[in-house]
Amino acid sequence: KNNQNKPGGNYELGEVIEGSATTASQVVWDKTDVSRVSNLTVSQLIAVLNSHGGKAVRYVPYAADLITGENKYKVNVFFLLGVSALESGWIDESHDMISKCNNLGGVCATSNRPSNGCFKNSNCEFAYYSTKGEFINAHASLLGQSYLNPNGSYYEGTTASAVVIHYCPGCSSWPGTVNAIGDQLYAHVSRVM
After folding, report:
1. Residue 38: pLDDT band with limits 50, 70, 90
2. Which among 177, 193, 174, 178 is positioned nearest to 50, based on CA atoms?
3. CA angle (10 as vertex; 28, 113 as ends), nearest 5
4. What angle do CA 156, 160, 10 make, to 5 degrees?
5. Region 176-182: what's the mean pLDDT?
6. pLDDT of residue 4
7. Chain-wide mean pLDDT for the chain?
8. How far apart are CA 41 and CA 58, in angstroms?
9. pTM score > 0.85 for this model?
């Protein structure tokens, strides 16, 4: 169902907020403004992930979470996937951050989101999430509200280069890698629509 017109946060648990693209030309990937939603539907994102193949298919079970997070928090799904794929090694379950914390974005623990002893490295203890879907929702909220919203505490602009300033200070290759992953996935849109 299409609930795109509902304001952010006005949703029911398990509800999917879909995009409305019917043609490839309606799908958005704008690296100068990653707060612009893609307009993809869940089934279209699944087709994109399957067309890309390889490790990207690990995100298929989370397509509804990704599309809903995109639309709720205004974070383009290609950017959201780029960050998550880079930080999680495309959901590499051999890493404790993924398998024990369900943390697909390298998000450090806070008093509101503790680690519960799931994993730490020299940088921080990682936040624990009960499911990967819970992480995707929380990550979209964090990026959309704190990094991409002009009123957000870490806002520097709407590009990967602006987000990285506070998200991963000193990570000079991060924006290019995130954008390259977004580009690779977006290239499949015209193949599946």
Report:
1. very high
2. 193
3. 85
4. 75
5. 98
6. 37
7. 92
8. 18
9. yes
Q: What is the Cα–Cα distance from 135 to 25, expressed in whole angstroms?
A: 30
| 3-state secondary structure labels for all residues of the chain | CCCCCCCCCCCCCCCCCCCCCCCHHHCCCCCCCCCCCCCCCHHHHHHHHHHHCHHHHHHHHHHHHHHHHHHHHCCCHHHHHHHHHHHHCCCCCCCHHHHCCCCCCCCECCCCCCCCCCCECCCCEECCCCCHHHHHHHHHHHHHHHHCCCCCCCCCCCCHHHHHHHHCCCCCCHHHHHHHHHHHHHCCHHHHC
Here the tokens at position 24 are 């490839």
The whole-angstrom distance between residue 178's C-alpha and the CA centroid of its chain comes to: 11
Per-residue pLDDT, 2: 33
190: which 2 tokens? 């015209």
| CA 59/CA 172 separation, integer angstroms | 26
- Taking only Cα atoms into account, the Rg of the chain, rounded to an integer number of angstroms, comes to 16
Q: What single-letter amino acid sits at 173? A: S
CA–chain centroid gap for 40, Å, is 14
Q: Is-contact 31 160, C-beta < 8 A? A: yes
HSE-CB at 184 with a 13 A cutoff on CA atoms is: 18
Range with the poorest average pLDDT among 57-66, 74-83, 116-125, 151-160: 116-125
